[in-house]
Design brief:
Length: 223
């Protein structure tokens, strides 16, 4: 039987590199899918109804500095999921209950030290701006020792915020899948139509001069 001539080395090497590159890409995609969720790898059409919120984010962007410099302003339209949770009496609530108001949605837990440090500032922000056009909605996601959030509010002197809770932590998971929550605390600034204006990963002194000016400008008020 006639033996075929050996394939040139450079062709063999090129084929190996191509195969290695393909398998490397597959591995990278698998890791990203596991960490971020496969839906994050897909390009979903933007919600055109939320374009005004992107325009508002651009208007407010010059005020995002100092104590609120970590706020990431929306650059693409995003309708925040209508997440569900409970109030202090155990009644069902959902984010859409505040439709028509600007909302600062905050996710926190009693075991999260930065969350605990941030809560009094959120309480003061609610005391200053809370009303028919603005609401701080702080949702606790402790999954055990469900008495702790109420005790913490009392110990920390939190008097203006209402206590909301989701022991299932589904609120966090929904926002994580959407790419809006990676850890605690997480805060989303949401317009009256339920559209994202900005997201904050980590704590902030929301009642600071910088934070108050941002919220006041958004509400067309004096800070």
């Amino acid at each position: 039987m006639t033996q075929l001539p050996a394939e040139p080395y450079y062709k063999v090497r090129r084929r190996q590199l191509i195969a290695r590159g393909i398998f490397g890409l597959i591995g990278t995609l698998a890791v990203l899918a596991g960490v971020y969720g496969i839906d994050r790898l897909r390009s979903n059409p933007a919600d055109a109804a939320c374009q005004p919120a992107v325009n508002e984010a651009a208007r407010l962007a010059p005020l995002v500095h100092g104590e609120v410099a970590a706020l990431t302003m929306a650059q693409k339209p995003f309708s925040v999921p209508d997440v569900a949770f409970k109030d202090a009496e155990g009644h069902d609530r959902k984010l859409d209950d505040w439709r028509g108001r600007t909302v600062l949605l905050n996710l926190w837990a009693t075991w999260c030290v930065p969350c605990r440090a941030e809560m009094p500032a959120l309480d003061r922000l609610q005391a200053k701006f809370g009303g028919p056009d603005f609401q701080v909605v702080a949702v606790n996601i402790d999954t055990n020792r469900l008495d702790r959030p109420k005790t913490f509010f009392a110990d920390a002197g939190v008097k203006t915020l209402s206590l909301y809770a989701d022991p299932s932590a589904d609120v966090f998971e929904a926002l994580k899948v959407a790419g809006k929550a990676l850890g605690l605390p997480t805060s989303l600034l949401i317009d009256k139509d339920g559209c994202e204006i900005g997201v904050m990963a980590g704590p902030a002194p929301w009642d600071s001069e910088d934070g108050a000016k941002l919220i006041a400008t958004m509400l067309n008020r004096q800070s």
